[in-house]
Amino acid sequence: MTTPLILVANAGEGSISVFRFDGASLKRTSVATDLKGCSNFVVDASRDLVYAAVKGSPAAIVTLRLDREAGELTEISRRETPRGGLNYVALTRDGSALLGAAYSASYGLLAPIDEGTVGEPTTIVEHLHLHSVVASRDGRFAYFVSLGDDLVGQYAITDDLELEALHPVGATAPTGSGPRHIVLNDAQTQAYVITEFSGEVLRFERDSSTGVLSFLDSASYADALQGLQRGTLGANPLEPRSIWGADVHWGADERFLWTSERTTSTLAPLKVAEDGSLEDARSFTVTQQHPRGFALSPDGRFLVAAGEGGAQVSLYEVRDDHLAELQQVETGAGANWVRWV
């Protein structure tokens, strides 16, 4: 069995770096290029395929084949997205369909996949400034997070592979909070959404039968001692210094929910109670500049963080709710998305 790989998207130079992890350090094995503005990708580990969203004219979804032994990516197909580039892609139905969310063009899509080739979208949905999308594990529901509309668009995925709006179509978030990225818990009974502007992780109850989300409560991931202002859509988060949240991921055994904040360039864990409620973050680790993306190893023992303000990633050992840095390594300009394979 080959050692684990870590893939990092470098939007500033239009590439994806491939690193091999030997249990203590990272070594870059290759760089896949011709991926303009790539800020997001999703991995089909069972088929060794990577679907990358690229910008430019035309924007597209690029399928790449992963050679685990060589640690290399090779492009095999492209599907143009003429309505505009996607900011987030996700898989559902055991890798037979792809979901996408577009921020600038404010639309989401569902498209079939046939042997690695992405087909024409079967459904387009519209919400303002969509930033992420996730499907339920059973492939029956999809959730599109709208930063501009302050809601999570909720849809059923039909047997004909189309999106059908639930009632209500939007699970509302607090006004002006700027919901951004979403994760579901392992039991699929709760959803957690990090906000970009209010410094919160929002918790929703999820009805596994109907798919409907209902807002429950929230907790803070922002460091109160930093004196950050509340962020605002369209404003410069650095002048004045404002909350600028980014990414969210589960830690080992769902004991902590890890978050990133870009103005202070910090990573912070929120402790998760037995009922799924969250405690405010209490520890903060300064990491790469403006950490837009990070990911934890499958066992939760290690974390790799990328900063869109630089060209490096940091490797950490996770020690409960603290991080111990093991290494910093070059990746590429505008590093902003990370996945373990």
Q: How does the SSE layout of this entry go?
A:
Layout: E1 5-10, E2 15-21, E3 26-32, E4 40-44, E5 49-54, E6 60-67, E7 72-80, E8 88-92, E9 97-102, E10 107-114, E11 117-118, E12 123-126, E13 130-135, E14 141-146, E15 151-157, E16 163-172, E17 179-184, E18 190-195, E19 200-206, E20 213-220, E21 245-250, E22 256-261, E23 266-271, E24 285-286, E25 293-296, E26 302-306, E27 312-319, E28 322-330, E29 335-340
Antiparallel strand pairs: 1-2, 1-29, 2-3, 4-5, 5-6, 6-7, 8-9, 9-10, 10-11, 10-12, 13-14, 14-15, 15-16, 17-18, 18-19, 19-20, 21-22, 22-23, 23-24, 25-26, 26-27, 27-28
Describe this structure in words.
- By secondary structure, this protein is an all-beta fold.
- It is 0% helix and 53% strand.
- The protein has a domain at 127-291: 7 Propeller (Methylamine Dehydrogenase, Chain H), CATH 2.130.10.10.
- It is built from no helices and 29 strands.
- The strands form 7 sheets. Strands 8, 9, 10, 11 and 12 form a 5-stranded antiparallel β-sheet that branches.
Features:
five-stranded antiparallel β-sheet, four-stranded antiparallel β-sheet, 0% helix, Methylamine Dehydrogenase, Chain H, globular, mainly beta, 341 residues, 53% strand
Produce a short descriptive summary:
This protein has no helices and 29 strands. With 341 residues, the protein is mostly beta strands.
